[in-house]
C-alpha cells in the first residue's frame, strides 16, 4: 500500500515542489497529479498519473483523449477529465493569443508550438487554416476538415471561401499525420500546389503548409517547397 502524498516528506510533494521551484521542476506525472488531486486506494495521485501516461503512451495522447476512454480507467471520472481538458484548452488559447498579438514571422516558433499542441497528438487527421491579417497577425484558427487516420478530404473552394469571408490577407494551412511521420506525401504536395493556385486568383498568398505529428514537424516554407505551384 503506497502512502498518500500528504504523508510524504514535504519536499517530495508535488505542490510543495511547485511552490518552491516552479512548474518546470516537476515531471509530467507530478504536474498531472496536481490536477488529479487524490489517488485511489493503494495508489498515490503521482502513481495514478504514471499509470495514465503509460496507458495513453504520451502526454499529448492523454490530453487529446475522449471522455469515453478516459473514464474507463480505474479511478478516473468525468470530473477529472473535465479539469484536465479545461487546463489544456487554456494552454491552447494562450498560444493562439500570442499569435494574434505578434506577426507570425516575429515568432515562428510559436506557430510550431501552437500547431503541435493543438493537433499533434490527435488520433484522427484534421486540417486547419490560420487566417492572417495584413500585419500577419492571426485572425482565427479554424478546423476546416476532419477525417480518418488515413486521410482527410480537402476542398480548395472551401478554403478559398472561408478566407474571403474573414477578409484574410494571407494564409497558413496545416494538418496532422497520426501515423507519426510528418514528411509530406505526394498528395500533400499536390494539395499545396492546388491551394496556391486557387488563392492566387484572389491575391491571398499561401505562406506555408505545415504537417504535424506527435513528435515531428514539417514546414513546406522551411523546406523551400512553397514555390511548388510555379514549377
What's the overall geometry? elongated
Number of strands: 5
The residue fraction in helices comes out at 40-55%
Q: What is the beta-strand fraction?
A: 5-15%
For the record, the CATH class of the largest domain is Alpha Beta
Tally of contiguous helical segments: 9
Unreliable stretches (pLDDT < 50, length at least 5) are none
* Biggest beta sheet summary: 5 strands, mixed
Q: Mean pLDDT, nearest integer?
A: 87
The number of domains is 2
Secondary-structure content class:
alpha+beta
- The CATH topology label of the largest domain is Cytidine Deaminase, domain 2
Order of helices and strands: HHHHHHHEEHEHEE
How would you describe this structure to a colleague?
- With 231 residues, the chain is an alpha+beta fold.
- The chain folds into 2 domains: 85 residues, DNA polymerase, domain 1, CATH 1.10.150; 127 residues, 3-Layer(aba) Sandwich (Cytidine Deaminase, domain 2).
- The chain is built from 9 helices and 5 strands.
- Helix 9 links the parallel strand 3 and strand 4.
- Helix 2 packs across helix 3 and helix 8 packs across helix 9.
- It is elongated, with a radius of gyration of 21 Å.
- It starts with 13 loop residues before the first helix and ends in a 12-residue tail after the last strand.
